[in-house]
Amino acid sequence: MSAPPQVISKPTIQPVRWKILLAFAIIYFVWGSTFLCIRIGVRELPPFLFAALRFTVAGGVLFIWMLAKDKTWPRWQEWAGASLLGFLMFLIDYGCLFWAEQRVASGIAAVVLATIPIFITILEILFLRTVRASVSLALGLVAGILGVVVLINPSASLGGTVIDRAGAIALLVAAFGWAVGTVLTKKIPLPSSKGMSSALQMLTGGVQLFVLAIVTGDMAHFHPGQLSGRAWFALFYLIVAGSLVGYTAYVWLLDHASPTKVGTYAYVNPVIAVILGYFLAGEEIGARTVFGTFLVLISVFMITLMSGKRRPRARSAGEAAA
Questions:
Q1: How many helices (H) and strands (E) does the chain have?
Q2: Residues near 28 by Cβ (< 8 Å), separated by ≥ 6?
Q3: What residues make up the domain containing 209?
Q4: Can you tell me the distance from the alpha carbon of 313 to that of 291, in angstroms, rounded to the nearest whole number?
Q5: By the 8 A CB rule, do 292 and 159 touch?
């Protein structure tokens, strides 16, 4: 009897180290810089129209790309599910973010939006019952709440400028909208392809932002010929680098690095945003900003750790950071 044929397994091809480092650099620094680009753009572009242009173009390009790649048209239930998430994560979240950055420094906006895991955890404890309350988790939640209070409470004896109340409320609404969308993601029908799902959410959210721009009069205040090169660059950067390139790097990293490592962007992005805002836009970094940022990031770290090292969801461009 002849010996059974040996099965020769193909060696797993590991990506070159520099590719992994480049992908991490993109989700760290590109996503961290998007907050400053939003701040630059809303000085000349109406906020809701600005957001609508970004996500309609980015979502449309990604949709065509994924359709050509997979050759599968999404079912109407998937369009409906994506439209709901487009409402929560793009109309509410990004609509509030772009509006708030007319009033709030870009670095502070990034810090306040870092509270998204806090809202997600609260929703999971109160409604889904998927996370059990504990002393450590409670301490993390308290740290995050105190961090926001430090940033917006004028009575805190830390000096520095207190952030605009209306802008702060808009940012918290934005964070809550994204948190609700994240929780609902597991409950509604969406395309199995991450790329197609993200494309539909951006595209439907962008269309809804266009409707909001019309209702609020943003379209009437849009004069393309009066925009500076800085505003056009901000729009181009957010579409190409922040959305398309950033999203591609993020999805690629999920296949080549642990989710926990990829999720570290949630801690790095606010720091990058604060530093860039200080050096490139003259935004203030005082004791209030430093202490509030520290409390929020400690909170995010503790909550993520205590909740089973849940991977933070990416923001924009395919759900990429800002």
A1: 15, 0
A2: 265, 268, 269, 272
A3: 30-306
A4: 25
A5: no
State the Cα–Cα distance between residues 121 and 263, nearest whole angstrom: 16
Please give the structure tokens belonging to residue 88. 């929560």
Burial class (CB in 10 A: 0-12, 13-18, 19+), 69: exposed
Residue 287 near residue 214, CB atoms below 8 Å: no
Measured CA distances, 153 to 82, 149, 292 (Å): 37, 5, 11
Tally the domains of the chain.
1
DSSP state for residue 221 in the 8-state scheme: G
CA atoms within a 13 Å half-sphere pointing along the CA-CB vector of 35:
34
Please say whether the beta carbons of 13 and 256 come within 8 A. Answer: no
Q: Indicate whether 22 belongs to any domain.
A: no
Tokens coding 244? 């398309």
CB count within 10 Å of CB 15 equals 13
Burial class (CB in 10 A: 0-12, 13-18, 19+), 122: middle
Q: Count CB-CB contacts under 10 A for residue 241.
A: 19
Residue 86 domain-assigned? yes
Helix (H), strand (E) at residue 293: helix 287-306
Residue at 300 is within a domain: yes
95 in a structural domain? yes
Tens of pLDDT along the chain (322 residues)? 444 444 444 445 566 889 999 999 999 999 999 999 999 999 999 999 999 999 999 999 999 999 999 889 999 999 999 999 999 999 999 999 999 999 999 999 999 999 998 898 889 888 877 778 888 889 999 999 999 988 887 765 566 677 898 999 999 999 999 999 999 998 899 999 989 999 999 999 999 999 999 999 999 889 999 999 999 999 999 999 999 999 999 989 988 888 778 888 988 999 999 999 999 999 989 888 899 999 999 998 888 877 654 444 545 444 455 7
Q: Structure tokens of 199? A: 């494309």
